């Protein structure tokens, strides 16, 4: 596309300056990539309910390790 070629053109009607500004604003918003959502913070209450990965689930010594502090 050349520098003098328009990005879009109006083919019907005579829009006002405000209508053109609204159209350009809508096009700009639609073509922007969406911002990455920040992960929600996890509360201490929810974190305490999750199993610890270092704890053995089954196998030799699992019963004894289940009573040890984390």
List the topology elements.
Blueprint: H1 17-31, H2 44-48, H3 62-66
Question: How would you describe this protein?
Answer:
The structure is a single chain. The chain has 70 residues and is mainly α. The chain contains three helices and no strands. The chain is rod-shaped and about 80 Å long. The termini are far apart. The mean pLDDT is 79.
- Quaternary status: single chain
Count every helix, treating DSSP H or I runs of 4 or more residues as helices.
3
Rounded radius of gyration (Å) = 30 Å
Compute the average pLDDT: 79
Roughly what percent helix?
25-40%
Q: Show unreliable segments.
A: none
Percent range for β-strand residues:
under 5%
Query: What is the 3D form?
Result: rod-shaped
Give the SSE order as H and E letters. Answer: HHH
Cα separation of the termini:
63 Å
Total number of strands: 0
Give a quick account of the main beta sheet: strands, pairing sense, barrel closure.
none
Could you say which structural class the secondary elements and strand pairing correspond to? mainly alpha
Region (Disordered): 38-70
GO molecular function: acetyl-CoA carboxylase activity; propionyl-CoA carboxylase activity
Protein name: Acyl-CoA carboxylase epsilon subunit
Pfam family, one: ACC_epsilon
